[in-house]
Input
Amino acid sequence: MSRTTELRWRGTVASRGLALGPVVVGRSAQEAVRPQGSPDEEWWALTDAVERTRQRLQGLAETADEMAAEVLEVQLAILDDDGLLDPAKEAIDGSIPAERAWGEVLGDLIADYEAEEDEYFRARAVDLKDLRDSVLAALNGPDDVPMAAEGSTAILVDRELTPSRFLEIDWTRFRGAALTGGSPTSHVAMLARSRGIPLLVGLDGDPSALPQAVEAVLDAESGWLVLMPEDATLAAFHRTAAARTREAEEQAAHLARPAKTAAGRPITVMVNVDDPRVVGTLDPGHCDGIGLTRTEFLFTGPALPDEEAQYCAYAALLQWAAGRPVTIRTLDAGGDKPIAGLTPEGETNTFLGVRGIRLSLARPDVFRVQLRALARAAAVGPLKVMCPMVTQPEEIAQVRALFAQVVADLQADGTPCAVPQLGMMVEVPAAALRAEEFSVDFYSIGSNDLVQYVTATARDNGALARLHNPRDPAVLELIGRVVKAGAAADREVSVCGDMAAEPELLPILLALGVSAVSVAPAALARVKATIARCDG
Ligand code: PEP
Ligand code: MG
Output
């Protein structure tokens, strides 16, 4: 294709960076509806999708822990039921498409399970819904996770990406992504920033008409996806990319040094962990520990993680940190991080719903497992535990009481454990206004949610991105208040929301008195370099 026909699509920068490579059009951007074939073709499509799902589940079961394997075995047993597909075959012979036939078979089965008296069977309905969706996804494509060749420099172009889909993608095979949907403040944008993956959202083109493998420049600085770039565009890309490489090298020189401002004020710089694989490539000597661990990464499988799986994950982070403090946040399910089978269904506003610590306190059976794992991990190294979405002092009092109970139980069994420091995320305005009233050992300001709640703008709504402003004086006033409350009570105040990693916003935080931040590993060098340039 001639380079004179360059096509430019505008987008909003969600994660800064540049990329050049062939486009991979994701499945959600391709023709969504599979054309219906003859009854024989529909039957073949369904049995093939069931078989591929069976193989996928078997593969997952081989590496899953005991609880996850149990759920997968239930799903496999259902797929192995000889009579399962009989009603689907009948429907397909009556000219019903495979998707509808399968949906109806599973729909009936789900209704039967939901009507059961026994709670165990009712709970299995969730696994059946998962199974239904897995086969439907398989029917709609041979592989629902976008894939590029090893060593590729591909750019993913799609409509939407959910956080779980984002985590499934092997990003070593992509240099960046551009989405027609999405928002720069969404969870997916945050995940992209934490890995340094350039991302544009709100793209104004139609990827469904885009041929696979067409060459593109992703300019996630100025906000353009340029398809079939002209020579002048390619030359400009190479110039900017070379300048960014030089800057990155300069910033990397700060990595191994403790962070301090130009005036010599020391600043604690920790990292945010939302996927332990990311710290595997990071030298712990380049940071002052972990300031936020998003434990949601443990809750992505088909079953909830058991105590042992959680303990091992937490202990591994403490071992990696080699004596530096590790802050682990209790489960923050809900809002933009739903967990099937755990977060309530049907809430009209999930951001204002039963999420974070509210959900943990409502589900002590699930919370206790996490607290036991944390109490055991506290015996391994300097663990700090913090709770998300705290609104009232009473919630912290309840967590302390539960922790004390869990520790007493573990001690009675002779299991090594300890009571870790307990802190809170300050991300609800009501908590920021009365921070001093909470019985905590430290505060960590979650600016992503604080901005959302102060400005009444959902963080995943791209249309409100301009109002979702971390510089809003009301947001800065609340951050200043928490810093003062911390100083008065001699409690550490850190900022772990994304604003701490922004070169234009970090100086404002330092001027407000913040002297500890926690940022995405990919931002560490840039943040340390920015601090070194700050006065005061
Ligand atoms: C925040 O809200 O700023 C935060 C760090 O937590 P999360 O983005 O995971 O909600
Ligand atoms: Mg938050």
In short: The longest helix spans residues 39-63. The pocket of magnesium ion (ligand 2) is lined by residues 388, 427, 446, 448-449 (CB under 6 Å).
